Amino acid sequence: MNNQDIEKLSDSAMIEIFNQIVDNMIVNDSVGEAKELIVFLSGIFSNNQQFNKINPQLFKIYQDFIVAAKYVIIFELTENEIVNLIRENFYFVLNHPEYDLDRKVKYKIRSIVGLNQRDIFKKEIRRALFKCKAILSKNKIIINGEKHNASVANWLKDYYMTVGLEKINTLKLNEYLTSSKNIKLLSPEEKIKLKKLLDFFENLKVSSVQFPMFEETFVAILPDEEISLMSYEKMETISPKTLKLYNEVKNINNLNQGNFVNQGNGGINELRQLIAQYPAGSLERKAVEEEMRKLNTK
Question: How many beta carbons lie within 10 A of that of residue 57, not counting itself?
Answer without folding.
Answer: 7
